[in-house]
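Question: Hello, beginner here. Any chance you could explain the protein record under this note? Any guidance would be welcome.
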Amino acid sequence: MSQAHRQLLLCWIGLLLLAAVQFGCAALRFDRSYRPLLLLPSLIMAALVALQFMRVRHGIAIVRVFAVAGLFWLTILLGLGMMDPMTRAIYPIAAE
């Protein structure tokens, strides 16, 4: 196996592990103050894809600018998507 294939395989395994962390955290109850930490695996996954699969490091300057802009908007979209789970309150229902 070549070095390039090994790097891609390690990146893919890392993405799978981060996805498992995200799915595992979905089943846990977090205190409200810890909910923004749920964005970290998503941001790490986006960085891995940009650096490894898109090869942004080896591109020209305009490629890097567009990649950074895309990651910026992805961060905004993920943040807006997390607004509901981060602000949702669980209200107990009184048993009758």
